[in-house]
## 1
Amino acid sequence: MDHQPKMTCWLVLFSLVATLTVGNAEEKNRFATEVQPYVENYCVKCHNSDSAKGELDLTRFRSDRDISDHFRRWNNIVDFIRTGEMPPQDAKQPLLAENTAVTSAIQGILLTAARKNAGDPGFVPPRRLSNTEYDRSVQALTGVQIQPTYDFPADPAGGEGFDNTGEALRMSPNLVKKYLVAAERVAHHLVLKPSGLSFAPFPITSYNERKKLAEQAIIDFYQEHTVDVSDYLNAAWQFRFRHAEAQAVTIAEWAEAGGLSAKYLSLVWDTLNPTVEPQGYLKELQQVWDAMPAPQGTSEQSRNFQALQSCVEFGRRILAPPQQPLIRSNAGNWPISHLDFRAKTAVARDKFDRQRLKNYTLLNLGQIPAPNPKDPPKTVSAFIRIDPAFSTGTNYVIVKRGLFSLANHLPNNEADEKQHHKVQTLRSILEQADPEGVAKLKFGQHPEGGEIDPEWFVIQAPAVLEIPLPGALQQQLQGKNLLLPCQLDPDHSQQGSVFIHTAWKSPPTDRRSPQVKHLIFGESETAAGLSGSATVFCNTFPNRFFYVDEHRGLAAGFHLVEGFFRDDLPLVNKVLTEENISELNRLWQELDFITQSAETLLRGFVWFERSEREILHDKRFHFLRAEDPDLIKVELLDRFEKLYLDKNGVQRVGDTLQAQMPDSRYEMIHDFFAQIRQGLSKHRELTKLAEQQGLHDIEKLAERAFRRPLLTTDQDFLSSLYAKLKTEGQAPEEAFRSVLTAILMSPHFCFRYHETQPGKDIHNLSNLDLASRLSFFLWSSLPDEELRQAAADDMLQDDKALIWQTKRMLKNPRINAFAREFFGQWLRYRDYLVNDPIDATAFPDYDDELRVSMFEEPERLVTYLIQNDHPITRLLNSDETFVNANLAKHYGGEIEKQYQIKRGAHQIQQPWKRVTGLRAAGRGGLLGMAVILTKNSSGARTSPVKRGFWNVHHLLGQHFPPPPADVPELPNSETGAPQTIRELLAAHVTDAQCALCHQHFDSLGLALEGFDPLGRPRSKDAAGRLIDDVAKLPNGEVGQGLPGLIGYIEQYRLQDFRQTLCRKFLGYALGRSVLLSDQPLLEEMEKGLEKNNYRFSTLFEIVVLSSQFRTQRGPEYVLSR
Amino acid sequence: MSVALPWLESGNRLLGAETTATPPKRFAFLFFGDGIHPPEWWSQGSGAEMELGPAFSSLEGMKQKMNFVHGLQHPENVVGGHAKGAAGILTGIQPQGGRKIQAATSMDQVLAQRIGEQTTLPSLVLACERPVSGFHESSYSMMYASHVSWSSPVSPVPAELYPSLAFDSLFESKGSRAHLSVLDHVLEQLKGVARQVSQADKSKIDEYATSVREIEQRLVKMQTRGKEESTDSEILQGKRPADGLPNQIDEHSRLMCDIIALAFQTDRTRIATLLLTNNLSGQIYPFLGLNVDHHNYSHGWQNQEYASITRFWVERYAYLVEKLDAMPEGDGTVLDNSCVLLANEQWTAHNAPKIPLLMAGSLSGTVQTGRTLDFETAGKREMSSLYLSLCDRMNVNLPHFGNTSERLVNL
């Protein structure tokens, strides 16, 4: 194999001449004297040009150089001679001394050649990013997971078997097409915000996604800052009784320690601990608060706390503005007045307004249930409880014409009363059933004397009134509501104030139940007296902190038209920090900007006023179309507003937008148009800002994508492309998307190449190139900020600084890329999910979740081993691994038990947990992992051949010639086979030709027969035949099961493992085939491992510091021969 | 920028590798909302005996190239409901209520995703009324009332409102122009890189440059196509509508029909969707002497105003059908190789027991025309079945669409 790159003719000639002269002058030809005689004696009989057995023709090699040029092949030859594999038993046998002499001669030749060019960085051509590198780089650039290459063809592997190898990664027109599509796919995530460019987690292609993105961000914010008042009451209570040593703690510190808002807890605290004597409702609150003992975790304590909580909730109910529906989706609902209504609602959430107090209420005791015919008739009573509230005078309540009615509201007219509601008055019913009760209620009489309506009666607080309904009456009235219209007596109780509520069966015991109504005259002095405390109370305890509609999110809530309404003043004013507030303001600004809210509202308004209301049904408005691009222009908007005012009967001053006489209708309309104008101009202003910031951001992004500071030419290009796209009619965001596409298509991004310095020397990579190389090596992705800074500061040429960066990067979670890419490719499980050998129909439990879990296991273990700098040999024998619920169940036994204990309370989730004791459970290291065992199964059966070959060839690096074409197939499943797989295999290898290879790996696979095709433990095969996992291993010893296999490798094959690992590792790190000249470095790596107890960090450090990694050849570089 | 890159795939046809011996088949879907005036919406008999109701008088001359399809149904729309209708008509599903938008990929976009790569534009999605995005009282988003075409269950296709821009998109979309600029720049940068790297490294850079150049050439060919093909350029000469928006919907909709006809004639696309009006439309018809919007009239659907709007939209449809029939192609006309539907998702604006539906063109003789097809009493009469049958005839075989996997019997 020739691993030298193709060069120009001149270069090849030059190197030939150089080699000839150097070679002849200084080196004697050891091949002719020490190797060739042996070859001719023992080898060429089979390995000649006619019958090149094992595809080896030894007559082609004539000099030392021929050997070093084909060093891999000759390394294999050395192995074959050493292990006695060759010459074969039936051929002429050399003496042991002859073997030793020839192998050391070959190795000597190779070593001499290797040393001549030690440290040669080799030829690493420019190449495109691999698919993994592209995806991971895009993720680093955008911060979101997109995986734009998901439909690319798989990258070819080259070099030491990795897809990061330059020679293998080619470009073609079809791939350019795919690159363009992929770049656009990424660009669809770009969103222009007032603060510049950002990336959405999903593609943004229509208004729907814009809205979803911006609205959800705000809803998420609100959810994160939801206020539960009881948390604050509790915190205040705990604070009041805090330990002596915490006395110095402030209420703000207390809040922060408990994860609460310091601002709001202070407000609550101050309300509960006023500096002046509390009045009105605050006095009631104070009494409850003062009565609370220290919290002790008893049920007594929770009763005390509930009293405080319900006192606050009660206050909110009777004092704060009532909650009303904010969505009015009826067709006639005028958007302009609806906005006005919402604005008024929003500002009043924490305001006490005594005008809103009620002196009248309709109590509805609900429907009278049908008595159960099986039960004996039983009298049930209705109770009315009335308590003095904030008044000490006499408190009379007039109950006006109590009714039994099918409706839950009072009749509007006689037809309602008689036909629809089928009303019967309370008095008429009682007279018929309970004449004594009638007398007790004193219908028609006022306690202060004088007559009232005969259907009315009066109660004086405090009182509990019982109205018994005998069984017969229940029968008669079933399904009807008992309605009691209650009015605070305006003649005798103008200064009155009562709590009134009702209940069935037993009297209400608490004067502050959730059903309580408060009756008071808003104009009264009592109400005025309440005002002070109620104002303070409502300010602390608003009726809501913010409003998000369950079904419509942040929609303004009118019919059909898109519009948003912000209703969160209490949250902003009382709870959020300045920092929170500016974040929330930013989110709202982004919503307006991203959805173009003012324009959307205006266009929706024009459409709505025509299609759902009649206001535009007038020839004067024919010029208006919601689609008109000019609709947002000042002239058109003014014309619209003027006509709209006229149509609404507003008298204007001349042709201005002023009203002759200010009135509320004019104010509402004019404010609406003013808001639209303001929104439109804000949008224009923000667009300019966004563009400026966007241009800045796109440069920063290009800088990261290109892995270097931008040149003036780059900057010019980006800005001129942007300008060009704008003149071609693209909106700012569209244009930025195209520029991003250009960046991702740029060779500076999607190609890796190093700038070369002229000459024939090897020279150091620049800081920037080295940073790139390091981060693609470790993370399969772009350098991060810190690494870029180190490069910019010229820090990477220093060994210590380079190692420091390397160690830092190994700790970063992105190192999982190395775990997946290097180990996954070396050990052949990376493509397991797309290339799964299992016949899934044979295994019903084998689902995608399990597959993904299996696939992730080695990545998690390896990442853990790297990050904790454990010995690399743990790959072979680790006693610990990571499992999730799927995998734990799959492995079963002790592993599953341990997982369940560790998972503990997380019953719903399936977290990954580290489990130990693998060796005792018959597993360990990578060899016992489900994914490795499964990947090396076949259809519905195990494959000892594949499992063994994987161990010997991939893990331990032993070389075999390719199998002949006519190998007989084993059956596809164990149930369909006449014998065990082991027995069938034994029959196959009785053929000596087959045994030649199979003897080296079958036994390792047979030792793993205790694992079924999916890697689960088993004692019988699928056909119920007993499993035998005792195997005679290649060194003649007998081993059983995975423990036997691990022991064998640890004891006899550790060097093979080490060698293979080092070669693969170096090949991956350099992105090329290992060269003969790398031999000294490989030896250094191996020795380093031995010396440092096989620590992972040893490999990374030696390779990163090596000349191979840090330098590159000049264009005229010539190999020494 | 468009999601698909049709011009990239269509290189072969442009280079003459594939000559279209048989004319291509096209599909157009015209939609208007808010129902029709039922007393005039009828036809009976087939062939020479066919009689048409007053709503169809403008189609008298075309009736032998048409099918009048009565009684097809839409899933769960029997109760009407303004908001969800448009999104259901071409998707065959019922969209989801509330804040989360969830419909389905519409039939035109399914076709575009399958066969759209053969033409400059995968599909042409036009509208004469802007979309609305608030909520209906039923808690369905108004997005559903104003989009018939959906590229995915969560993404309505943004429709082109402006005739001039729709016309431009037939030649060079903004997207393809941007691609050219991008590729130009990539080539520039590659030149720079080639200077920086060694001779040996250059081959990899050249490989990229060559690939980019080839893609660029394909793109340029696509863009200059109209200029090279003389018939095309004659056809298209001077046809570009003025910038901006026509003030009235009659002119607006006529221009949009012209563009669909042009696009089909020049094979710029084979799939076109035109939303004439939304459900709950705010459009007015002063040119019919009417001051009030369509939806308002629908509340008294017996009135003559409502009838005249129905007649108007059928006339607009007839205009497109006649126009396509006046374009010779092969042995017949462009219409003969097309299927042009007109549908409304409502019957009267407040109920939808069946779909008002007209169908013109025979899809190259694969659909027999000149018939009244009445499915009113048929057991299976899903609109989605019609779509499956039409897709079959356009050589796009779908196992399932919308709410059915059954083809329409007797089409």
## 2
Amino acid sequence: MNPGSLNYFFLLIGTMIVFYLFNDNKLKQSVLLLASLFFLSFFGIIPVLTCVLLSILNFYFAQHAYKSAYNFPKLVAINTINIFALLAFRFVNEFEIGALFSAPFIGEQFVAALGIGFYSLQNIGYQIDIYKKRYTPEVSLLSFTLCNTFFTRISSGPILNIKAFNSSLSTLPSKLTEENFTVGLQRILIGAIKKLVIAERFSYYINLYFDGIDPGVKTGYDVVIACFLFTIQLYFDFSGYMDIAIGSARMFGINLNENFNMPLRSQSVSEWWRRWHITLINWFTQYIYYPVAYKFRSKRMMATVFAIISTFAISAIWHGFGVTYLIWGSLHIMYLIIENFLKKDLLKLNEKLTSFYYQLIFTPLTFILVSFSNLFFRSNSLADAKRLLLKLIDWRNFFPDISLKSWILNGVDWKMEFMVSMRLGFLFAILYLLFEEKLSSRLNKSKFSIPLISFLIIFLIVFGVFNSGTRFIYMNF
Amino acid sequence: MRTSEQILEELQGIFIKEFSDSSIVLNDQSTAKDIAMWDSLTHMGLMDTIERHFEISFSLDEMISFKNVGDLRTAITAKLK
């Protein structure tokens, strides 16, 4: 079941009806848990069992360890299990699915343990917090399991802080307020538009470019376009999913953390990581970056460098076992270390150039750097990445040897209908990005506007690409 | 025994030296947003300098819990008592 599919919305509406029939908080939580297990069951019995068993294990382990002095060996033991489960299922997943990105049809694919990448991090963080006595163990197995399985966000995040999520569960609303309904619906609609009107239109091209099918990539120019388009597609796909997850949760009065804050406006790679996949990077910062930087803080700059390397090395492994992910992680390590060394100079440059010109130079530069790293993130294998890199550095054949009119629009001789479709998506993407700040603030307003909602629905119906059946990219993790 | 004002003054000196920025003026409400060089990449180095200067030690949780300079000053004052 794909978030954004009709099945998903029937599940959401059905769950909302039953949820608001009950007044009792525990019953409401039980409804959400049952809906979540039902959602998971679409991917097979193994994801259900894995998630439930790991939740039960982590819940009781933390309680027991806390009562009998939670020591370091115990923390290592439980988190070894968590990490082993995560890596084992990730391993099975990649081998079963093969190339992650070229297997888009979720219904026809085996997903070993959907969402394990996300709830494992939650469980690992939870055990560390209890070990560090940051708070006391959870007392409700129902809330704890729901936090891991919650269906609106299990497959791609945002990553939750178990304590914060569970405190929001204690105040579930008795009725669907106008504010929750309006904001929830608006976020769901904009998420569906991001996915179906924009990201989907890029899929055909991205797959053609990266999956090595002729006439995918002929020149370096094509590689540049492929990397740029993929970065835009990934943003709209992933943040679209987040809008649907956050909007759906809002229907139950649950506020999930935001995962994106207009990352394409970043003026540095470090700023990019403060705006992109925020809950994941916060997790890595809290549980890997800070402890490492703290341990070696007397080494000053070297401590920062070592902490950045540790964080992105683990992040790369979390994304997948391939060498391509390691190269992607290494590039970001390099970017961040260079930025850190040049920080004072960049600040001076900002003053000299004034923020207008600084932004004009460094926003596109950041986009280019991130897009280049995505060449490795998206490539199915090292051989594929190498093939694209060779095209990129072949400067004699960088531009297609055809007329200006053709290559400025598109160097590849694809079918006109696909070209028009992609360009329409590109147009909508740029329009969205230009007005992103205003739109985001309007969509978080609680005043129900019939013209706005009608416009969003009609826009989605008219321009949405509904027949491809592709899943959200981050469901692979 | 240092007064609260003295601690703030010393902190200002540390920030100026650490970030090579003589324009820094601290008050209790100052946060990382107000000081361009102060972010997660430079935070631990700054904390190390503060620990050495005042001859105190912070735990990791203390270091990442400071929301502003006021929190930092309160923690230093408590440790110096």
